[in-house]
Amino acid sequence: IMERLLEQRDEIKFCVKLSKTGKETHNMIKEAYGDAAMGRSGVFGWHKLFREGRERVEDDDRSRRPSTSKTNENVSRVENLLNCDRRMSVRMIADDLSIPQTQVFEMVKENLAMRKVCTMFVPRVLSEEQKANRKAIFQDLLHQVNEEPDFLDNTAKKHCLCPPNHRQQLAAAP
């Protein structure tokens, strides 16, 4: 396919040297190549370039950016940010790491197997490390409840997120 395009560009260049118009050139290309002919805008675009002095029929080299930002390094960077603060949004992560939001979303969903619940990213399935950590926390809480029967009542009164007057009522309660 590329050879056929280069061949047609050569023909367009030849027509320009013969002082043919863009329309004449397009008609000749259509007649010679039929269904495989370049489109009208392509013929006119190349005709203009050759008329302005271009000599090469090959495409210009382009500076290409990486096709994806989903590298193992970036997945690790996203994971580290989420481990520090699970409340970070995809937009915040993308801004911090200079990665497109769509790529961050795919990394979180596919590579890290997480989803957004309320305002936090949570793992769909806990890792062994997370399971062990939770088990240790709950065993510690269970130990404190067994040692001090009023532990939960006292903790609820200390950390209540209720309005101040309600806290006073709780504190006064037996």
Automatic annotation (TrEMBL):
Bias-annotated ranges (Basic and acidic residues): 55-64
UniProt region (Disordered), positions on chain: 55-74
Top-level taxon of origin: Eukaryota
InterPro entries, alphabetized: Transposase-MT_Hybrid
Gene3D superfamilies cross-referenced by the UniProt entry: 1.10.10.1450
UniProt-recorded name of the protein: Mos1 transposase HTH domain-containing protein
Originating organism: Cairina moschata (Muscovy duck)
Organism taxonomic ancestry: Eukaryota, Metazoa, Chordata, Craniata, Vertebrata
